[in-house]
Specification:
By secondary structure, the chain is an all-alpha fold. 51% of the residues lie in helices and 0% in strands. The longest helix is centred in the C-terminal third of the chain and has 25 residues.
Length: 138
Amino acid sequence: MMLRLKAVQSAGLFDPKYFLYYEEVDLLRALARLGWQTWHVEDARLIHLGGAATGLQHRQERRRLPAYWYHSWQYYMRKNHGRAYALIASVLWIVGATINLGIARLRGKVPAAPLNLVSDLWFFAMRPLFGLKAGKRD
């Protein structure tokens, strides 16, 4: 990703409340609200090793997402869409993950949802939306 310094400065740089994840999406959304254009090079090819730096790269076994991923997701959703939207998205994510878990079991496949999604989503993302402190990982 390449950004004009003037554009990034006009948006207030990256939001320091993000540790990792969603900070670039949040910045691009802020730039769009300010009227900056986003371009892409259709012929560009790259390999994104998502999660490689944090050990979350896609593997066959299900892994648990770190707490900061949920914190960033919740913060992004609340900041850009509001508390009610974030709560609805959380509930729908749980419903979708539950359906995925059932279908995966019937097919003998590994579910797509991260390990402990429901409890982690509740503890790290949904509790703060209700004004409660985020939970602690067991």
